[in-house]
Amino acid sequence: MRRALAGVLWWFDGVLGGQDYQRYVAHLRRAHPERPVPSERDYWRERHAEAERNPGARCC
């Protein structure tokens, strides 16, 4: 039962973008080491602002 719950939580985390910031930080460090790493709060703020500026990928 615990493994099933862990699997469901992992799936929801992936769907909701729970690991996106960590992947972004890894990308910045690998591909753009000279750029400063934004805080997680700043990352999400910019990501949501970008989605508002370019709503083409949304359904509504």
From TrEMBL:
<protein>
    <submittedName>
        <fullName>YbdD/YjiX family protein</fullName>
    </submittedName>
</protein>
<dbReference type="Pfam" id="PF04328">
    <property type="entry name" value="Sel_put"/>
</dbReference>
<dbReference type="InterPro" id="IPR007423">
    <property type="entry name" value="Sel_put"/>
</dbReference>
